[in-house]
Amino acid sequence: MMMSLSLLPVLLLTLCAALVDDVAAAAPRTFADTDPITGAPVECDRCPPGTFLRASCTSTQRSKCEPCPSGSFTELWNYIGKCLRCGVCGQNQVEKTSCSADSDCQCECKQGYYYKEKYDMCLPHSACSAGLGVMTAGTPHQDTVCNICPNGTFSDVISAQQNCREHRTCGGAGQQLLLKGSSWHDSVCTSCQSTDGADYLKEIIPAFFVHQKMHCRRLRQILNRLLSDDGRRVTAGLSASNLQERINTWVSTATASKLRELPAVLNRAGASGAADKLQSKLRRLDAHLSERCPGNEVEAVLMSE
Description:
Residues 1-18 form the signal peptide. The chain is α+β, with helices and mostly antiparallel strands.
């Protein structure tokens, strides 16, 4: 019984192949017409793929077929008086196979896009959010498949190509772990050279804003509050990535005391949830730095809170 079941797929494939051959062999190669001179019924030959009917047959003359001119085609045996015009690939498509006399061009989605049957169009591959990595890269026929970064790995970007990366190991040159990595940021290491836990926020803030997925309006409010000391403001029109870059630029030059004010800035901009999360990260950095590097300035900060 098991032998019969294992042979079933092979038999089905063989039958399907034979059926296709039978259909092709049974395709009509002639068509009924009328002799234009005598008016008598005649049976004319159809033209093979790659040609068209230039002149129908008569009682004394067979059908006249001619090759399709450049830019046209016929795929079937036919008796049409003109070849079909070659197709043109649509938006976000590229030509996979050129049009030939007996076959139309074949198109597929261009790089970075995939075909969505529901909409009958090519859509951009989905990008995996921070905390997610690419499990299967998108193809012209399939969208990107993302997966949550497993323990010990992270992704701090929005990408349709990048997979999760392993957390760094804190061990060389006297370094030790200050903050364990998460799914969206790398591990933070210290050699006790920095004297303030807020300095280490600079390592995770770029990934933090990517992970929060804030709207442009919210990011613009935050940036305007950060720049208010200099009397500068950001007008509308910048994308979320542009706004994040400007925030990161501010962070890279900010003092530790200014970085400690960032959770409060987020609160005033209406991002209370993000403020709480960033404040929690800062407290953990401070606590671990105080524990691992006794005698640093962060202890004074903790005592004053």
